[in-house]
Every structure is written in structure tokens, then in C-alpha cells.
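Thread title: Can someone regenerate the structure for this chain?

I was given the following input by a collaborator and told the matching C-alpha cells would be attached. They weren't. Posting the sequence so someone can regenerate them.
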Amino acid sequence: MPDLVNVLKEEIRRLARKEIRSQVGTTKQAVSNYRREIAQLKRQVRDLGKKIAFLFEQERKRLEQPGATEEPPEGTRFSPRSVQAQRKRLGLTRNDFALLVGVSPQTIYNWEQGKVRPQAPQMAALVAVRTLGKREAVARLEALKGSNGEA
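Best answer:
Regenerated them for you:
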């Protein structure tokens, strides 16, 4: 009788190990597949991060020169009231508007007061800002502030 008990115990152990191996085997395969997928996703994230950094840098360079290299269109007029109206239309402070145009806030103040007139490159920048909407102006400001390291 003791021999039969041992044989049954051994057979039960063998069947249990076989069942465990089959269950663990599929789990091991799944874990292996998941690790492969995770590694692939990490590579994709790294590559996309590089692309985003490159595109951000290109956009920052493009925004740093808002038409300052080109001459203003022929017949463009300057009015101190129009500068102030343009700034208020965009809902910007003098500091933000100055950053967007590429001049100092004091220059914006002097333009709005009629004390000085913008030079040709500055006039071109003003004309370029005229075409911006509120959202685009805010987006450009955020990009410019981010590239300058400001908060």
C-alpha cells in the first residue's frame, strides 16, 4: 500500500509540474513580447523627442526674426494710435508686445506717445505682427519666452 501512495503522489507532482510549466511558459512568452514592445516604444519616444526638439528649434529661429530682414511694404503708414490699438487688440502688455516685435518696452511706449517713429526693420516687424491673431500672438510669445529661458 505505501508503494501505491508514493506512486500516486509522484504522478500528481508530475502532472502539477506539467500544468505549471504550460501556464508559466505562456506567461514567459507574453513577458518577452511585452519587453520587446516596450523597448520598441522607448525607441519611438526617443526618436520623436529628437524630432520635436529639432522642430521646436526651427520654429524658435523662425520666430526670432518676425520679418525684420524684409522691408515694409511700399505705402505702409505709421500711426501711434494704431500701435496702441494693435497691442490692445491682441490683449498684450507693452513688455509682451515689445518681445513680439523685437524691441524694448520703452520703444513701444515712445511709439504710442508719438515721440519717435519706427525704423524700416522695426516697421516691417510691426506690419508682420498686424496679421497675427490673438492665439497666434500668444503662441509666439510662449515660444519666444521659452527660448529666452524666461518663465
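The mean pLDDT is 85.
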